[in-house]
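hey team, just a heads up i'm posting the complex here instead of the shared drive bc the drive is being weird again. everything in one block, sequence lines first with there labels, then the predicted structure for the whole assembly after. its two chains so it's a bit long, scroll down
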Amino acid sequence: MRARAKRRSNTLSTLFSSIPRSRCTTSGKTSVDIRSHHRSRRCFSGILILTLSYNVYWQIRPREGSQSRCYQKLNNLDRKMMLSAGPQQHGGPTQHASWSPYDNNGGTCVAVAGKDYCVIAADTRMSTGFNILTRDQTKVCKLTDKCLIASAGFRADAITLHKTLQTRGIMYKHSHNKSMSCVAMAQMLSNTLYMKRFFPYYAFNLLGGIDNEGKGAVYTYDAIGSYERTGYSCQGSGQALIMPILDNQLKAVSPLLVPPQDGATPLTQEQAVDLVKDCFATAGERDIYTGDEVEIYVINASGVHKQTQELKLD
Amino acid sequence: MFRNQYDTDCVTWSPAGRIHQIEYAMEAVKQGSAAVGLKSKKYVVLATLKRAASELSAYQRKVFKIDDHMGIAISGLTADGRVLSRYMRRECINHSFVYDSPLSVGRLVLQVADKAQVCTQRSWKRPYGVGLLVGGYDKTGPHLYYNCPSGNYYEYKAHAMGARSQAAKTYLERKFETFDDATLEELIKHALFSLKESCTDGELNSKNCSVSVVGLDTPFDILEGDTLKPHIDALDAEDAGAMETDTAPAAPAADAPTDEAAPPEAEEPPAAMES
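-- predicted structure starts here --
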C-alpha cells in the first residue's frame, strides 16, 4: 500500500524507480523497460502534444488589428467571405456585394401629352458605373402605330420587356384583326410588370401614344406595374432634375380631382418639342448619365415622326 | 372513288397499297372553292374565290396573314385551315422572338407537313381536310408551296386547287413562262384571269374575290372589296369581249360543311352581307 502510494505520489519519480519485472508481449521488452517504455511513449506523446498545441496556438492566436476575439478561430477563407458580405464596421476600405442580377444603365426618358399629339423622348447614352458603354443606344420601342414605350434602367430587362410587348401586340393583331389600342397596351404593360413582382424587370417605363379618341396619352409606371395616366412624366437618372421643370411649365392637375380632369397640355406640338429639348439640355448639364443624343418621337394622327437633337458628350 | 372495305380509318392499308382516308381527305380539298397562286422573280400572288354560306351570310375568309413575309390561302375545311394558320403564326412569332429574323417559308412548310403526317398515322386522329397554298418571301426569294392533307408539300411556280381548279391550271400552264419577269400588276391580272376560269359563270367581283400580295419590299397585304375593285375593273375592261358580266353572279354553297357531302351547285343571288 505504501509502496503503491509512493509510486503514485510523484509521476516523475515513477519514471526512474525500480519496479517488478515482467515481459511485454508486443515489444519484447522486460518489465523494467516496459513501464518506462510505455511511460516514455506517453511522455513522448505528451511532449509532442504540448509542442503541437504550442505551434497551433501561435498560428491562430489573435493577431494585431483583427476584428474581435470571437473571430479568432476562423481561417482566412471564412474571413474573406465575411468581409465581402458588407462594409466593415471597424474601418478599412468599403467592399460591395460581389454579384447582382441587376445593373443600372442610366439615361432619362420624358413624355408630354397634348390635345392631339404625344411627344416621347429619351437620350441615347448607355452607361455602367462611371463608364459609358455606348453613345448610341435607343431606349424607345414602337409597339403600334399609336403607341411607343420608353424605358430607363437596366437595358437587358428593358429589351426583353419591349420584345414581349411587341410579340403580344402581334398576337393581338392576328386574333382581333386590329392593332392594340394605347389604353389596352397600358393595362397589359402593368400586368406584365406585376407578373414579375418578386423578381422585377428593372425598367422604369413611360408609355406614350394616342388614345381611342385621338387625344394624347402618357402613362407612367414604377418597376412593378403601378401606373397612372398623366399629362407628362419623366423617368430615369435625370428624373429629379427634369420633373420640377415640367411641373413648373406644364402644371399638373391633381389626380384627386373629381370628375377627373384632362392632363393634356394646351401647348402646341412645336412648343412641346422645344420644351422637351430644353429639359434634356438642362439634365445633361448636371446628370452624368444623360447626354450624347436625344431621340424625340412625335405621335399624332398622321403617324410617328422622329427627330434627333445632339447633347453634350461629357 | 368508290367506298370499299379498307377505308374505315387511316391506319389501314388497302391491298393496292393505298390509304383511302388520306385520299378522301384530298377530295375534301377539291370540294372547297378555287384558290390560285403564282410567283414571279420578286412577288407571290394568291387569289381566292370566296363562298357565302347563304344569301344572308358573309363571305368566308380564305386568305390568312401568317407573318409580314408570308401568308396562306386555304381550300377545304375552313376550321382545319384556321387551326393550321394559328399554328403557323405561333411558329413565326416564336422564331422572330428567339432569332430576331423571319422564319424561312420552306422551313415552316416542312413543319406543317410533318404535323399533317402525324394525323395520318394515328388511329385516334383524322387527316386535316384542308389544302394550303403558302406564299412567302424570304432571303432566298419568293416561294409558293402547296401543303397537302397527306403530309406532302410541293413547290410550284403556279398552282390552283379547289373546285373547277383544272380550268385555272390550264390557263396557268399556258402562261407560266411569262410570270418570272411580269410586273406586280400583270401578275395580279394573271391570277384573276385564271380564277375567272374557275367561276361557274365567269362572274368575278370585288365582293367574292380576295387577292394577296407579298414580295421584295412588300409586306404581306390582302386586297379585298374596295382595294381590289380597281384590279377587277381593269380586268373587265381588258376582257370586255371575252366574258359576259352577269347581274346575277354565282354564290355557291358553304366552303366548310359539317358533313362531307358534295355541296349543291345552285346559282344564287349575291350575299347580303360583306365579310
